[in-house]
């Protein structure tokens, strides 16, 4: 029986905790030996979302096959919660004994305080990457990836990416088929690799306030793998083709066609990273000629 122990600090984010916990709990439901534990420096920990949690004060005996996870918290900068020397020592000693330590989001700061990020690749949520690098200058902070692994120190971007991190750990321990089984049970769309970006193209180009462009994007997002003439998009948005192109470019920096190609390319790269050929990925995302996908990939290489 393997332990996964979550170390909780005040202000812990519920999804940073619940996502990975659900992964390991589901793996245990399928017969894989994981027991979950929750440890804190006080018996009750209030989450960032206001829900109080009850945790133990005593760490279980941990071996090399066990895992410690530090979920992230809301506070940042000077408001970062204090962590006593005991838990930091536990993180260091567990790793020194051959165990794995992991963090979600701002939890990477706890690993840094324990000295476990020095000289190692790590990541965190894109909002606090610069802060992590400032606090721990010997750490190698990798921007805009979902998770990193370096010598049994595993860090993830935060929030939902904690699920990706946990699925990766399950795949490493029990094989990719088990991780896929867990993801399917959790209704997770797809298991993402660590090097994939934290923000998808759909999110990167949605930070504007133009309702007309959002309406066009809604249609492109749902049908990016099919032909979408500009006239169809303009009709759905309720404007002329010329007006849509002008508004779309001003709001996103891309033409509607380039935005569609960006979505296709991102999805194709995901398929290729999971073993698809370039030709099959091109067909899956709507390119009639795989050479178009090859040209787009070459531009971004």
From TrEMBL:
Q: Which domain of life is it from?
A: Bacteria
Q: Is 4Fe-4S included in the keywords of this UniProt record?
A: no
Q: Where is the HTH araC/xylS-type domain?
A: 214-301
Q: Which UniProt keywords apply?
A: Transcription, Transcription regulation
Task: Quote the Gene3D superfamilies the UniProt record gives.
Answer: 3.40.50.880, Homeodomain-like
Classification via Pfam families:
DJ-1_PfpI, HTH_18
Keyword Transmembrane recorded = no
UniProt xrefs under PANTHER family? ARAC-FAMILY TRANSCRIPTIONAL REGULATOR, HTH-TYPE TRANSCRIPTIONAL REGULATOR RV1931C
The protein, known as: DJ-1/PfpI family protein
Species assigned in the record: Streptomyces zhihengii
